[in-house]
Amino acid sequence: MVNHASTHRYANRTHNDRGPGTFKKYGRNVVPQQQFNFAHAILTRLWEPSAWILEAALLVEILLGKTLQAGFIVLMLLFAAVTGAIQAWRADKVLKTLTNKLTLTVAVKRNNQWQHISATQIVPNDVISLNNGELLPADVQLLDGTLEVDESSISGESRTIRHQAGDIVYAGTEIKSGHGLAVIISTGKNSRSGKTISLINQSAAPGQLQKLLSKIIDYLAILDTVLVIILVLTALIRGTNLITMLPFLAMLFIATIPIAMPSSFAVANSVEAKQLGQAHILVSDLSGIQAAANLNLLLIDKTGTITTNQPKVVALHNFSKYSDQALIRWATSATNQQNTSVIDAAILNYARQQAIPVQAPAHFESFNSQRGYSEGTIMANRPINVKLGAYQRLYQLDHNAPKLTNQIDFGSGRTVALLINDQLVGLFIVKDQPRSDSLQALQNITKRGVKVIMLTGDNQKTATSVAKQVGLTGNVTPFNTLTANTDPQQLAGITEVVPENKLAIVQRFQKMGYVVGMTGDGVNDAPALKQADVGIAVQNAVDLAKRSAKLVLLTPGLTPIIQILDSGHRVYQRMMTWTITKLSRTAELTMLLTFGFLIWRSIPLSLNAMILVAILNDCVTLVLGTDRTNITHHPEHWNLRRLSKVAGVLAIGWTTLGMGVLYETTRLGLTPGQISTVLYCYLIFSAMLTILMTRSTKPFWRQRPSVPVAVAITINCLITVSLSLTGLGIDKIDLSYLLATLIIVLVMGGLLTIIQPHQD
């Protein structure tokens, strides 16, 4: 219970202690972020397992006196380290920008008035109001009230701690329940946590795509291991010097195993996160963007998302001997006058419209979803206990309630019960209107193949009316009537949903195979938002809900969800291009080199050429995040079998043609160095064409790539042509061999475009 008389004394005292220089003295309630060190990022990438393999190969080349080859390995090392550092810098920049955009707000007593300000502006001795669902913005001492606090962020133990007046509560902890006033004692770097709350989760659990890619890495590693064993055994049988083969074998692993692939995808996601940030959508978990492409079921809260969340009292039913004015005044005592909810605001505005003064309670206990009501105590001739909350929860306290309300149309709006000393004395009818953009937004979401289901605590009649207004089709069913056989595709809404039900609903549909999205705003929405594949906290969500969600909307309504879907589809298409290209060219390279060694007793590609292949291919993948995409209007699916099928057709086609190239160049009597150069040209041309082929479902000649992708491909081809004709770093070949290689690649590309399986 909060004693308002005592809290006013605390508030006035502590407020007067704040001098004009207080903010200047303490500064902003933030902790300076660790600056990205580019040089350190490069050095770190030079000291990891993938670099060790190359560094060992470099040492072997130096010992063998092969200066040119050693130089190429050094180039490969620096290229990998610098590009990796650039990717990390880009991701760090984007995530820090998003973190800075999303700050907590705090109810603080300033100039004898309660106001909401940014948490960065609070200073020691400020008095703030605390409510369930909030995150502590600084270290505080509780002045009054009782809080249940989750301190796992500082203790590591996921259990709630009960705090009362006089206790110290630390920054970064989560208020699970309760209400109180507190005085700020430490801010910024001086707080125990040493940091302000960041809602950007930079170490989120991997999404479906990243799990898929991890499997791909494992398969490629197995493939390389098998091929290396075959090559080594063959070399031993033939008496080949294994020392001379070590650099080649090392490069084979580096060129084929995408060790940095997970971070590359994180960067690609962060680019899209930046775009969403500019559209006032903050991304706290990058896997949410990936999952948006697969989303096929969206659960949406009615209040505040579909509706305006600005309910108004449209009627008061008085069942008592007291006047309407008395009931309204008493009802205000059970509202949170410091951190008003939408229902609190509706009651208070109703009182103000009728010039009824607000009643300050002697004691107050804020709304608790488990009880379903808030409570105030007025000290008169005798204490008057006032309860305000959902009729479905409060009618049980008064056995006469059903008789009093048997003529009430509960379908006319949301019913808020008023009890005086546990006797039902009145019902407020509260209505909230659908947002003007809800109908169009829901239609657009549905057109994307996403089934939308409305969740509400309202009764069936009210919910059905709202569903019809916003174009939702299907049945509107109470939660307790759902069965294992209930088909989500037949539902327009689920009614009589309490917050605790939402997690069960999300889990139920996930078990049925749906990729589930969820919007929410309350404390008890947090578990469901965390569980959902795409958890979305709406604009007015409490801090705990924002922290649990993968995406946070900074503007009201449903329209931003369309942009989330678009981002997911763009990431999907770009990543599919990368993945299919990587799989196909890896299989092509390893099989050509292995068969070449087994058939012609020599490795058909020089170490220099292999390093060039690895560098030039990666140069293109660095800009794939900018490529043009086509937004598909249906949910996508990450499917390794389908990806392998598409990549397999490409790999078989390119490998078969490559073996023909090796055969023909050997038959024509080209030197091993010239054969290596022709194969190098073939690998580059086929890889660039594969990118163009896989980036679109249309024939590659009918859809242009983005300018950066086109420029990267052009530069790679020009470098390849220049090196081949000049003999710089590789053996020189005639123009005729170069043109012949280009022509057969284009012909095969056209054939593979026709016969390859459709990616969708």
Automatic annotation (TrEMBL):
Main location: membrane
Keywords, alphabetical: Hydrolase, Membrane, Translocase, Transmembrane, Transmembrane helix
Regions that span the bilayer: 68-89, 216-237, 243-268, 606-625, 646-663, 675-694, 706-730, 736-755
Cleavable signal peptide: none
Domain P-type ATPase A residues, every copy: 105-200
Its membrane topology: Multi-pass membrane protein
Biased composition (Basic residues): 1-12
Region (Disordered): 1-24
Subcellular location, record wording: Membrane
Entry's Gene Ontology molecular function annotations: ATP binding; ATP hydrolysis activity
Pfam family, one: Hydrolase
Keyword Translocase applies: yes
Entry keyword Magnesium: no
Any single Gene Ontology cellular-component annotation: membrane
Domain of life of the native organism: Bacteria
NCBIfam families to which the protein is assigned, alphabetical: ATPase_P-type
PANTHER family given in the database record: CALCIUM-TRANSPORTING ATPASE
Protein name, entry field: Cation-transporting ATPase
Source organism: Lactiplantibacillus paraplantarum
